[in-house]
Amino acid sequence: xxxxxxxxxxxRAGTLRVTLDRPDRHNSINDVMLAELGAVLDRAERGGPPIxxxxxxxxxxxxxxxxxxxxxxxxxxxxxxxxxxxxxxxxLRRFTTIGRVVVSIVDGRVTGGGVGLxxxxxxxxxxxxxxxxxxxxxxxxxxCCVLPFLIRRVGYQPAHAMTLSTLPxxxxxxxxxxxxxxxxxxxxxxxxRLGARLSKLDGVTIGDxxxxxxxxxxxxxxxxxxxxxxxxxxxxxxxxxxxxxxFATHQQMPWENR
Length: 258
Prior knowledge:
This protein is of the alpha/beta class. It is built from eleven helices and ten strands. The model has no long low-confidence stretch (mean pLDDT 90).
């Protein structure tokens, strides 16, 4: 619909529904998806429904950055760090300030930057089949852009543990640490209840509330600069670049040979 390459977008039942639609790439995030998600938020702000729903196609909600695609772009432009950092951080920040309620519906695995999409959402519903993990350390990387939003949502220690352990967090545990608001088999009743309440609010009020609440929980000074600079430092490491190149060639995740 509407010519999107990486998404399926439709307005239905008072919601703008956005489905990440790269199942052959585990719904990984590339430059096109970043641009298209930004365009969807533009559409929502031009008078769309009060709820933006984010979901995934297939058994993976989102696997984070598409390293294979990014490495090809970097070969042409030499700026993998910039392309993979600032634009993604900006998208997550926009989730937290847009005058719409962003809801992630998760049914499956979420890794890397996908955890950032979830953490930056206003509400998250997930099935028992879902899990959430930050495997970046296995590449020699860190979830630099994800962590400010994850810490904002779950607090320091859960984010710390997810980063260092690289282990997936099952849905029940994710609910207990408040990465997930509710574990449900079907999110539609919850969306209907939410929609009924939000229909009574002005979109300006939603935006005002989100911006005010963000000021009550400020990130570290210059979180965006710190995150993108550290990501650039890590991703420029020869060892990390070898791992990315190996993945681009063999499509083998770093934990699969351990």
